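Hey L., structure's done. Input below.
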Amino acid sequence: MNVQLKTGGKKVIWQLQEAKAMFSEVVKAAAVNPQTITIHGRERAVILSFEKYKRLIRPKERLFDFMQSSPLCDVELELPQRQAEKMREISL
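Output:
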């Protein structure tokens, strides 16, 4: 059974044979929303706009690089000195 959802007037779930027959419409609809392709009622593929694809595959910024690019990178923090605590005795 194929459920057909509507979002903003654009279909988002297509049966494979329907998607093949209306491929240009599937691609146009993908500019608005990702389009899901089903085979025998099971989700098998998704067609995305190229812009969404580029955002999906772009390299993620490392935390270190993010912190280094912060405008607060050169701020010196004054942290209170920690008191050395006595070791606890435990029985093994």
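The chain is about 30% helix and 20% strand. The mean pLDDT is 86.

-- N.
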